[in-house]
Amino acid sequence: MARKADPTAPSGILIVDKPAGMTSHDVVARVRRLARTRKVGHAGTLDPMATGVLILGLGKATRLLTWITGETKAYLATMRLGATTATEDAEGDITSARGCAALSDAELEAALAPLRGDIMQVPSSVSAIKVDGKRAHALVREGVEVELPARPVHIGCLASSGEPRQTTMTINEADAARDIPVVDCDLVVDCSSGTYVRALARDIGEHLGVGAHLTALRRIRVGAFALDEAHPLADLEEIARTHEESGATDRPPLPIMPLNDAVRAMFPELVLNERETELFAHGQAPRRQGGELEALREQAGEEPIAVIAADGVTVMGLAHIVNDAVKTILVFS
Q: Which of 35, 80, 214, 290 is the residue whose CA sits 20 to 30 A from 49?
């Protein structure tokens, strides 16, 4: 017998500032416990080392995650020039240590410039991409050499943030430890979904002939959702703890963005009349033509449109324009 839906279950978007040292799945598991619901998913994995914006969908909003995952993203990254690692970040073993004694602004810019715009990027081998049914990162851990095909990505911004910093790095070798000169560079990255910032660092290091890896990565934006809207996981756990200690038995008041607000923040709107609202509830898309249809097409392009009920507030679902008609994508029942 199917389990009845819980009418009190939360539904919306929760923007978490993920801490370092946790997987995205770890965060989902914590929020399931805090929100007392199983229906929680995330829109785009962050590596354990990375911090920042992790979008979680709860309840009906899990159906939005496909579109949030495909949104552009922005990062602050720190790249270390002079050494490469097996994982292309600071968590992996050193695989080469050529060192980097100095770096001019002109040299750095010459390495960044070819990576802007529409490029073909070879993803990081330590990624969740599947190869013959297995995750690439799992194959790498098993000692399998993984070669992934290049794929198109768009780099809207790739720029240095601040002056490069000369420092040293201790390399532990079989017989002794030695220090090598390295250069740390802070970068600002704005990119399409599917871009690997680790791979950008790898390619910059290869261009300069010294190798590179990431030492820090912080996601500051996913689509319309920015870091200033994100809540540290520790704060969410404190809200739940305080709520429980007060003797309350209902769900803790987590700062979940309601489904209506989340959808309207993401997509242009189409407000229905009373009759269209009734029909859309059964999946029938509204009819638009002429100048009204063209105005919608200009706003949305190929992106979805938020379909709003006649009350002007309630989000009914999503639609898009196909040829010369509005077509239903999904209905939030």
A: 35
